[in-house]
Amino acid sequence: MSLPLYDSHNHLQAAPLAADRTAILAELDRQGLVKAVANGTQEQDWPAVLALAQQSPKVIPSFGLHPWYVAQRSTNWQATLLQHLDQIPSGIGEIGLDRWIENYDSPQQEEVFLWQWRLAAKRHLPASIHCLRAWGRLLELLQRESGPRCGFLLHSYGGPVEMISSFVKLGAYFSISGYFAHERKTCQRETFRHVPPDRLLIETDAPDMLPPGKYIEFPLADAASGKALNHPANLRAIYQFVGELLNQPIDTVASRTAENFHRLFAALVK
Ligand SMILES: [Zn+2]
């Protein structure tokens, strides 16, 4: 029996998945995927997100400029983003703040993030947020600037447990990926036990965030480099991991995830 599966954050459009994409989409169908949110990260991959969503009704497109790519943005990036958003019902993301990468430029990141955050608020679009080592600053910004009324996603939440309730008040959902199943993530994965059940979502972040071997149902490697990739259809195994973590039957995990997904992405799920 297949469970209805929802992937709240991935990068199905990513170039390393291109060669296998048809097979991947077919496998996702077999696995019971209902919807997956494909997040663009820079101007160069927005057309691929759009094309994928036009081709597959299960793909919800999301367009955003990721903090890793702010330095490369063109002078037209805002107009290009608006053009994509105007073509298809879509979310905003992946956007965010990152003080983990080398040579980060916080003022530029914040300017780009806030412009997109205000756009999400104005258009009532769910936003998908990436944050590394900037949780305090992110909370400060979100408390100052009202967000989209549908809520927003803190993808692969890696912040402190103490901040969960403050983010919840602002409308946050928290997604867990299979990456948290790694032994070294034991402490961080405990935080997800403190997320209110009506705010928890599941993601693969594929082709990134490879889970440990136990949860890799579909091995995949980059054809060019041989590097291991996270196959989007590992999603079902991640549901299993979440069930184990929360001590819940997988059916309960699946029905709650479906409800939460439909609430956050209501404007985009037809
Ligand atoms: Zn991502």
How would you describe this structure to a colleague?
By secondary structure, this protein is an alpha/beta fold. It contains 9 helices and 8 strands. The chain has helices at 21-31, 46-55, 77-87, 106-123, 135-144, 164-169, 186-190, 235-246, 250-264; strands spanning 5-10, 33-39, 59-63, 91-98, 127-132, 152-154, 172-176, 200-202. The chain is globular. The two termini are 24 Å apart.
For the secondary structure, the number of strands is 8
CATH level-two architecture of the domain at 5-173 and 254-268: Alpha-Beta Barrel
Q: Label the structural class.
A: alpha/beta
Distance between the termini: 24 Å
CATH class of the domain at 5-173 and 254-268: Alpha Beta
Number of helices: 9
Shape: globular
Biggest β-sheet strands, sense, barrel: 8 strands, parallel
Any low-confidence stretches, pLDDT <50, length ≥5?
none
The CATH homologous superfamily of the domain at 5-173 and 254-268 corresponds to: Metal-dependent hydrolases
Q: SSE string, helix = H, strand = E?
A: EHEHEHEHEHEHEHEHH
For the biggest β-sheet, the strand order reads: 1-2-3-4-5-6-7-8
Helix content: 25-40%
State which percent range the strand residues make up.
Answer: 15-25%
Defining key terms:
TIM Barrel; binds zinc ion
Summary of the model, kept short:
With 270 residues, the chain is of the alpha/beta class.
Secondary structure: elements and pairs:
Blueprint (H helix, E strand, L loop, with lengths): L4 E6 L10 H11 L1 E7 L6 H10 L3 E5 L13 H11 L3 E8 L7 H18 L3 E6 L2 H10 L7 E3 L9 H6 L2 E5 L9 H5 L9 E3 L32 H12 L3 H15 L6
Parallel strand pairs: 1-2, 2-3, 3-4, 4-5, 5-6, 6-7, 7-8
Helix pairs in contact: 8-9
